[in-house]
Design a protein that fits this description.
mainly alpha, single chain, two-stranded antiparallel ribbon, 2 strands
């Protein structure tokens, strides 16, 4: 079960985190580009692990547990490195906070609902949120130094990344609210007899 390809892909996201952190910490254009590539490859595995698990009928409780953990660890590591090394503008800090708080909220809701045997399925809007979030973080990790096209006139890659991060944060608020209301509905319903 742990060696099924979908679970290996999920575990590879966790294994990529130290490499990502190392490349960002180097603080060179090559390191920034390498961090972006590692992050992009790790983010792509998020799409393929679920797709493969469904197509091969290898869905498991282990995979359902590990997948969101791997996602949250990858996103948290990237955001913490960007914030810790002043790679976000002061305005970029706010969507980062929203994203981190939503991830904690949804994790808590999922844990509670699992205890009462209720699943909280991922919505299509949440998938869009993840796409914007991953693209934004990839652009921010590449930054203006690591991106092959450093500037597009007055438009910098880091500016594009932060704009996408704000879109991801807006989607984060909407999907977080959806998950919160769904969780509260289950929490307030009478227990099954």
């Amino acid at each position: 079960m742990l060696t099924d390809l979908p679970n290996v892909l999920t575990l590879s996201r966790i294994a990529a985190i130290p490499l990502l952190v190392l490349f960002v910490a180097i603080r060179t254009p090559t390191g920034d580009l390498a961090a972006c590539v590692v992050f992009a490859i790790a983010a792509i595995t998020d799409y393929f692990d679920g797709k493969l698990a469904r197509s091969r009928q290898q869905q498991s409780d282990l995979g359902r547990m590990l997948d969101p953990i791997a996602d949250k660890l990858l996103v948290a590591a990237a955001l913490m490195m960007l914030v810790g090394l002043d790679r976000l503008s002061p305005w970029g800090l706010y969507p980062a906070i929203v994203i981190m708080l939503r991830e904690i909220l949804v994790s808590g809701l999922r844990e509670y609902l699992a205890g009462v045997r209720v699943r909280l399925p991922v919505t299509n809007l949440a998938k869009w949120k993840t796409g914007f979030q991953m693209a934004a973080l990839g652009a921010l990790l590449a930054g203006d130094t690591g991106a092959p096209l450093v500037h597009l006139g007055w438009l910098h890659v880091s500016f594009i990344g932060e704009a996408m991060l704000w879109v991801a944060a807006a989607l984060t608020l909407v999907t977080g609210w959806d998950y919160l209301t769904a969780g509260l509905r289950h929490a307030q319903s009478p227990p099954a007899q």
